[in-house]
Write a structure and sequence with these properties.
Number of strands: 14
Order of helices and strands: HEEEEEHEEHEEEEHEEHE
Largest sheet: 6 strands, mixed
Number of helices: 5
Structural class: alpha+beta
Radius of gyration: 18 Å
Distance between the termini: 25 Å
Number of domains: 1
């Protein structure tokens, strides 16, 4: 396993799952606006939903993994096919990203399997709750190790329910969920892309506070 993550987490072998986090940034067309992809569905809390696929030039699709907009992530067509072929991942877990010629050049990760709630085991407080639509945002306050690196907790029940690619039940302060991957998918990605960084999830008995 690459040394970079091990330098930050000396007990990484005990981690059961990981919050997805890529480092390379993809870019969209210069005339792209947030409203081209998202619409506001509550004027009180400004909750947004994605109603359309992203558009990006082929020249931006050179890396296998990328951060898209805010906390959205994307992968190349080749990596998507590899994940579908070898893991508990399906075509439904991705949204196509096309260029202006309507050619698919990349894929947005859009996990369909929602995890059981994480907020109780991690003691995440409610950051805000909209009195109009009921939208809840949680403050995903992380635990910190001796290197001041973030980690979270997971329960055996949540772990048993996991797929290789998952989305959290909770939405956080910017209205984005966590994207959580299994240990075996993490092992594959970190070996292939050692400069990527992930936040581990431990069982409480494996990682005392």
């Amino acid at each position: 396993m690459p040394k970079m993550m091990h330098k930050l987490y000396d007990d990484l072998d005990k981690a059961k799952a990981f919050a997805l986090s890529f480092t390379n940034f993809a870019y969209f067309y210069d005339d792209w606006e947030n409203s081209d992809t998202y619409e506001t569905v509550c004027e009180h809390c400004h909750k947004e939903i994605q109603y359309a696929d992203y558009r990006m030039p082929r020249s931006s699709a050179k890396k296998d993994t990328s951060i898209l907009h805010s906390l959205e992530f994307g992968v190349s067509p080749a990596l998507r096919e590899e994940l579908i072929a070898n893991f508990d991942v399906t075509e439904a877990d991705f949204r196509p990203i096309r260029n202006k010629k309507d050619e698919i050049v990349y894929y947005q990760i859009d996990p369909q399997h929602k995890l059981l709630p994480l907020h109780e085991v991690n003691e995440w407080p409610i950051l805000s709750q909209c009195t109009h639509c009921g939208n809840i945002r949680y403050d995903d306050i992380p635990k910190r190790n001796e290197n001041k690196e973030d980690y979270h907790y997971i329960t055996p029940e949540i772990l048993a329910d996991m797929h290789d690619l998952n989305v959290s039940f909770e939405h956080m302060h910017r209205d984005y969920p966590l994207f959580v991957i299994s240990r075996r998918l993490y092992d594959f990605l970190i070996e292939r892309y050692p400069r990527t960084h992930y936040f581990p999830f431990y069982l409480k008995e494996d990682k005392p506070r």
